[in-house]
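Hey everyone, long-time lurker, first post.

I ran two proteins through the pipeline my lab uses and got sequence/structure pairs for each. Pasting them in order. The first:
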Amino acid sequence: MANNTALPDGIFSLLDTDLYKLTMQCAILKYLPDVHVTYAFTNRTPHMRLSRAAFQWLQEQISKLANVSLTTAELDYLKNTCTYFNKDYLQFLTTFRLHPSKQIHASFALLNDTGSPDDVGDLSLDISGRWLDTILYEIPLLALTSEAYFKFCDRDWTYRHQQGRAYIKGRRLIEHGCIFSEFGSRRRRDYHTQDLVIQGLKQAAADSEAQGWQGKLSGTSNVHFAMKYGLTPVGTVAHEWFMGIASITNDYVHANETALRYWVGCFGEGVLGIALTDTFGTPTFLKAFKRTMPTPANSMADDKKTLIPGAATPPLPPMDANGTTDTSEERSYAQIFQGVRQDSGSPTEFIKMMRDFYDSQGIHEKKTIVFSDSLNIELCLEYMHAAEEAGFAPTFGVGTFLTNDFHHESNGQKSVPLNIVIKLSSANGHAAIKISDNIGKNTGDSETVHKVKETLGYVEKQWANGDEATRWGKEDDEATMANVQEE
């Protein structure tokens, strides 16, 4: 394994995270600052275990998170670039600190303890505290866990050709008219890999622009790298927002609508306007998506059903371009939001479902679909053509395919990434769950999952390509473009 000693070890920037963690934290500060939550770690590739040495390194890196804080330069960047963040939130960030010794419990269950640093075991990470204080752990912990594995357990790889591979991938996507962002923070091999990848993508974007190609590198979800390389930070909201609100209210029938209402109330209309559909299944979401956003002029009969008990403030109605309340016409959430994100199940079925939905609502303007589930070049191009034929503007969030695509130096076979997640597991003492559009992505307490499915009339789905254990390939697969030479 190659090393890059010029870079600091572990996480050293509070902005080394995905944008949507910050946007959700902003909304939580405004509405739900005192909610207590827990998070749970899941390894969907359970045969890929950390060693004792890897776990000890991970523990050290977790403890160092207490030293990370927002710098003056980072604050200025957020003020100037992310203008949707309000003053209260930016002020909050200036004094924000993580307290891992109080908020994270990490444990390691050895399979066979011989006393060797190479003894392997199962990792457990449990996070608890106020939602406001713990929401930023997810991305750093996942990134550090991946780094620990490939630093100590799978070491048969180098950084060789990573920048060149990213260049070729980016160039191919842009050449074929694809608009995409880099989404690879959570499962990156390490910081240096993501840095090399973004350098390669930037060069591809610059060269492609000179060619006049229609595709585009639209940004990165990682706010730190967006700042470092002058890219647009990209992202809106995660499943966590919907999961948390459903858990707090214990009302899964109205959870999607409540989450949408408070999101628009925090950021306004036309801002961060890509809706995530699959937390409790897309069909359930679409029932909420066609509902009318409450306004002072014409409040819905069941307005109170979409208010969160104990929320610090009620959600404001959407504002117009001048920052004043717009009561000129009733509009549904489907009209207000610029588009949707597809993150589970069959993308082609999703495209048809959304086309049928918008048509049924009389919405004919071109809406955006952001695809973000386990993408590669071929899938991006396939979904792009299908979405464009259906009248959508497709964009793509490409993650692990960019930041953790390696082969073993000894035999040329794929060095398979970890498939790991950290999900909200409870809020205010109630279980938090996610159903999604694929049974392989069900998350949380199984009894609650079953009850919610019954309540919502959820129809079980299992996508043929949705095997989470082999989502990013198998060890006997050939690595992607392993023979690419560094540019």
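...and the second, right after it:
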Amino acid sequence: MLPWSAPSELRKYSAAAHKMTGIPALPEPAHPDLDSMLSRKFGKEVANYFSGSPLNRVSFLRTDHTFLSAALKHPTTSFLVFNNLNPLAKDPSTLEYLRFADVQPLVGDDPYSKNEEQLVAEYKSTITIPQLLFLGLDERNKQGLTHAIYTGAPYFALDVTPKGTIASQAESLIQNLQSRGLKFLEGRIQAALPAQDAAIYAQARALLDWNARNPYCAQCGQPTLSINGGTKRTCPPKDMANLKGTIGGNVGTEPTERPDCATRKGISNVCFPRTDPTIIVAVVSSDSKRVLIGRQKRWPPYWYSTLAGFVEPAESVEEAVRREVWEESGVKLGRVVIHSTQPWPYPANLMIGAIAQCIPGGEEIVLKHDPELEDARWADMDEVREALRVGTSALGESAQEGYKEGNLRLPAGTAIANQLLTAVAGGFVGEAPKI
């Protein structure tokens, strides 16, 4: 038997699997070397792929247009641009960041020259405004922009998808970028990026997707306006586009009042980005010797993973774990412990990783409830450890050298499922330190 009892040993083999498959290394958790009462009791924090951003979001500065104007044009500022949610890159593992001069033909000289109150008052729904996001400051760059007590290189994201009144400018920008040998990475999931770039990409993609999905007010159906650095949308009370007897609206003319809208009353006067909580769980048998795994019909042969599902309204995470596991597999759970979380920007999930243990007598697998799974089974710890060593990959990709056809396959290390399985195979449920 391989010496898998120590979690550090298992992490060493997991790191080797990352190297062999070309999977990027995971981000470092915050203060990984700091000793504390919490880390001694619960183990070191686990950081998953798409987390670990190097940026300070300084969310309280998103309404400060003086700051945003200065950040937009600073020589250290970087722009990550997307076309149909596909990021600009040199290759699948290298994002390409632009400067203000590159995007100026699309965004104009200064989209933050007016404050939010002025922009709302002059709103005209027939004019397409390029979707621009302020992502944050990289405070490691001491040559970056200084504003009050904050210093760092600003980061923005920009949607260059051709649409509306900016279609021509966007197409010209795209053609210019492609002529420089750059490309927009196609494919739903980008998992070859270095960890910190992946976190920046995830933040940008999730917010751009949310803005694109919510161009209209959910209450009254009227077009909305992006505000707060791209992280909120508001339903303006007036619209210059609805002026009668004018062509395009005249400056100084009173705009048309829009229908009454509940979002303009009380404290719920803006639309906030959506995040969908999703549980994903490594289920351990009552004797701690086996792990529950399942597979969907569309997956490659021998490929399994942990079970997952959405948290429903008025449901705790622990309740969602027990419900989803029973619905999909018939297995009944007792104790549920949260292990770690993972942002998943497809489109806006927060994967809440848990480890749970089956109650005695509750291990029978029944697939007749929810038909989501093609198969579910119990795998012993040695089988899981061997799969973590040589059998991990993204869906449809090859396993590592040493994998034997017909053996168990598991998700790559960039998936939180891999980290949950690594934890239980390394002694999370036992007397040893938990993580």
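Reply from user beta_strand_b:
Welcome! Quick read of the second one: Confidence is low (pLDDT under 50) at residues 1-11, 245-252. The chain is about 25% helix and 20% strand.
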